[in-house]
Design goal:
Mean pLDDT: 96
Structural class: mainly beta
Oligomer: single chain
Number of helices: 0
Shape: globular
Helix content: under 10%
Length: 123
């Protein structure tokens, strides 16, 4: 059974930082791309970024230069380091397993989803 456990969300002030983690189990973690998405209240889910099996990364323009995705294959964990957070970053953040070693920005390229962790950016 595939399990994705996201954690690390919380309340942070604008300009602050937060690191999310997503612990995975039930599949060969190192063989798959791992993506991060977010969904703000009343809005559609949107792509944040992805790290492919070899470590290459790709980000949405809205977070490029502020967010960094990394992975630790020994721990079956993917991370999302978020710096210079903005109020519009308030959302539930989800990690997802790519269908293949490489994945992009489309939700259809991902097959398993975590339960999400809430990030609130507010003063």
């Amino acid at each position: 059974e595939v399990q994705l456990q996201a954690s690390g969300g919380g309340l942070v002030q604008p300009g602050g930082s937060l690191r999310l983690s997503c612990a995975a189990s039930g599949f060969t973690f190192s063989n798959n791309a791992m993506g991060w998405f977010r969904q703000a209240p009343g809005k559609e889910r949107e792509f944040v970024g992805v790290i492919n099996w070899g470590g290459s990364t790709y980000y949405a323009d809205s977070v490029k230069g502020r967010f960094t995705i990394s992975r630790d294959n020994a721990k079956n964990t993917v991370y999302l380091q978020m710096n210079s957070l903005k109020p519009e970053g308030t959302a539930t953040y989800y990690c997802a397993v790519g269908l293949r070693p490489h994945a992009g920005r489309e939700a259809l390229e991902y097959r398993y989803w975590g339960q999400g962790t809430l990030v609130t950016v507010s003063s």
